[in-house]
């Protein structure tokens, strides 16, 4: 269980529009994103999140996470420097305004892969991203995909399914997402994802050539 804290950005960010990508586990976000990054190398980037947890073996500060103290992170949150943040298993995690801007400064489209609560948090800011939801065709198909993974307990699986049901309902609300992509066929879903982003992709490619 964790809590989300919402904060407002006070100044517009320059550079390509970011992309907020959301959807339940098992909907196919990771596969679609992997295909996108492979086809458009040097176009997209990820912001480096902050956390108060200690680095794990092999992790690098500034690459995997920005590892900071709880006092530093809370102070930054209080100043409105974070787009969204969460407390999970006693540790704080969050996406800072500066980390997104750092990606945009490189003329890259910043991808924020966040949950529905994070989407609502971004809605309170002036980040102006493209909001995209990736959804499964049905709960039955989603359950089969998750079970086929065979990676978690029944209790954990049920929690994911319950969260997915809520996610699917919220995705239908008007004004939440610019586009909702139902991943029934991977090629079709990928085509729709590219269509939604092609204008920003072309802008980045054009700037890179100039």
Automatic annotation (TrEMBL):
CDD domains recorded: GMPK
GO MF term set: ATP binding; GMP kinase activity
Domain Guanylate kinase-like: 16-198
Keywords recorded for this protein, A-Z: ATP-binding, Cytoplasm, Kinase, Nucleotide-binding, Transferase
Catalytic activity of the protein: GMP + ATP = GDP + ADP
Keyword Kinase: yes
Any one Gene Ontology cellular component term annotated for this protein: photoreceptor inner segment
UniProt xrefs under Pfam families: Guanylate_kin (PF00625)
SMART domains: GuKc
Primary localization: cytoplasm
Domain of life: Eukaryota
Protein name, UniProt field: Guanylate kinase
Organism of derivation: Salmo salar
């Amino acid at each position: 269980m964790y809590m989300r804290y919402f904060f407002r950005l006070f100044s517009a960010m320059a550079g390509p529009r970011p992309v907020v990508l959301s959807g339940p586990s098992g909907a196919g976000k990771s596969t679609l994103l992997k295909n996108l990054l492979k086809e458009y190398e040097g176009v997209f980037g990820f912001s480096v999140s902050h956390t108060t947890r200690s680095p794990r073996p092999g992790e690098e500060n500034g690459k995997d996470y920005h590892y900071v103290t709880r006092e530093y992170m809370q102070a930054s949150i209080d100043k409105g420097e974070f787009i969204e943040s969460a407390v999970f298993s006693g540790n704080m995690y969050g996406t800072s305004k500066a980390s997104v801007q750092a990606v945009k400064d490189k003329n890259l489209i910043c991808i924020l892969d966040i949950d529905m609560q994070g989407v609502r948090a971004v809605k309170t800011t002036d980040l102006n991203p493209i909001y995209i939801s990736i959804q499964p065709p049905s709960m039955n198909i989603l359950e089969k995909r998750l079970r086929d993974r065979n990676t978690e307990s029944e209790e954990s699986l049920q929690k994911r399914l319950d969260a997915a049901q809520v996610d699917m309902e919220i995705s239908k609300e008007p004004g939440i997402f610019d586009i909702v992509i139902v991943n029934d066929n991977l090629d079709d879903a990928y085509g729709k994802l590219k269509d939604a982003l092609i204008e920003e992709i072309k802008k980045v490619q054009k700037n890179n050539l100039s």
